[in-house]
Amino acid sequence: MSSSALPVRAADPANGIPTPIQAPECIGDPSSLFFSENVTPAEPPHPTLPIGHYYQIVRYLGDSVSAPVSIDYGHISQSYPWPPFRGVPLTGLTVPEPAASYQRASFPEANPDNSSGFQLHCYDAGSFINTWTFPRLPITGGGAHSIYGYSFYPTQLPSIYDASPGTDFVLQAGIEIPWFQSVLDPDAPAGIVPVGQVNFFAYFLDRRSGKTFALLLGVFDNRYRPSDPTGTGFIAHDVATPFVSTPMVATSKYATVSPYSGTFTGTTWSGLRFFRAHITQDNFRRMLGDVNAYCAANPGMRYCSASAPGAPAYSTAVTDYLITDFGVLHEVFPQGDKANLSMGVHVNGLGAWNFR
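The chain above was modelled as a monomer; its predicted structure follows.
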């Protein structure tokens, strides 16, 4: 049999050889790596923040990273007034002393009851969002959120694939989500509940058209139950750009979940759980085909217009794509003026890789 007749194979998910696109980074001094935005810019938002380091940005959370804070946002204090909550994990990440060097909240004396809190230390990031503690701001295309991520300099954007058809693009991290508490809006319709979500994300740039689109890989949604169907993924638009969304499950057509990886869930857990998603070139081609089909049906959406009649909005060649940024998105939707929730997330060892 000739070599040209052999099937094209992706990297072996169990035994592929990794090379870093951006390896995890141990942050010693995070003082310049916390950011906040509360106003939707005239240009649709995009998380790009090229500073050469991993960072944490919070959006639509008021002054939630205004001050260094010493109280532990990893676990509830052992002196907490209600005994059943004492020592319970919030983010699960307890940073070393001096804790104020690695944590931010609304004010120096803040605690989890009166402020959200955010953490950066070495390979770890923590995000505790408490919707009782910040104003509800007008938001277009999403919810209040934090991002632990990395953005590449525009002149140094890496390709996500090389010439080898066996190269995969991979996102991975250890994650724990030990805390989720919510109160429903009594006036909300039946079935409308506060929502907390955690997703890997990446933004890809079509080097031919200059357009971006996004990928979301679902790790957690509190509404999900094991008996629920998970589907294969879908295409939508967040006003800024088209995006592909898929849960990290075996049935996804846009991602291949590693045999070593955790999968999409709606149940909280304590202790880091490893998550790894391979985006094979076949997975990516399916994304491109479906994004282009979505754009053909919605040509008025941003980035969806074609360069010529009958042409696709995005290049169909997987080697035409660069990565601009990636990370873990922690996003909340109270779903009602009287609804609230609090939720804690810990991320460790986030990185983007090629596997061959």
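The two ends are 24 Å apart (CA to CA).
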